[in-house]
Amino acid sequence: MSWVFLVIAGLLEAGWAIGLKYTHGFTKLVPSVLTILGIIASMYLLALAARTLPIGTAYAVWVGIGTFGTIVLGMTFLGEPVNAGRVFFLILLMVSIIGLKLTAH
């Protein structure tokens, strides 16, 4: 169950990271509230996952999923650049996340 919590926490991290753009410096109420709730939920699920997973692995996977998701969402919806280099390093990031999962005991 810890891995499920961790994956959801990582997805929420990507969501709140994108949400930061829409808060306009926390001056927009609804995006700000949703972003803050996303941060709280993401951290709570990370804390639950870290009860049984090594903290280094849990944190790295959480950040990795959040980074991967934020970049993909930025390229898909925010017009951020898509090029071979970015795609290569996204694949490398995903390989690293999977490797950490496979080697965690």
UniProtKB/TrEMBL annotation:
Give UniProt keywords alphabetically.
Cell membrane, Membrane, Transmembrane, Transmembrane helix, Transport
Q: Which GO terms describe its molecular function?
A: transmembrane transporter activity
Q: What is its main location?
A: membrane
Q: Which Gene3D superfamilies match?
A: 1.10.3730.20
Tell me its family: Belongs to the drug/metabolite transporter (DMT) superfamily. Small multidrug resistance (SMR) (TC 2.A.7.1) family. Gdx/SugE subfamily.
Query: Where is this protein localized, as stated in its record?
Result: Cell membrane
UniProt xrefs under NCBIfam families: PRK11431.1
Against InterPro entries, the record matches this protein to: EmrE-like (IPR037185), Small_drug/metabolite_transptr (IPR000390), Small_multidrug_res (IPR045324)
Provide one Gene Ontology biological process annotation. Answer: xenobiotic detoxification by transmembrane export across the plasma membrane
Question: Pfam families annotated for this entry?
Answer: Multi_Drug_Res (PF00893)
Could you identify this protein by its name?
Guanidinium exporter
Q: Which domain of life is it from?
A: Bacteria
GO terms for CC?
plasma membrane
**Keyword match Transmembrane:** yes
Q: Where are the bilayer-spanning segments? A: 29-47, 59-78, 84-104
Q: Does the keyword tRNA-binding apply?
A: no
Recorded hits in SUPFAM superfamilies, A to Z, give: Multidrug resistance efflux transporter EmrE
> What PANTHER family does the record point to?
GUANIDINIUM EXPORTER, SMR FAMILY PROTON-DEPENDENT DRUG EFFLUX TRANSPORTER SUGE
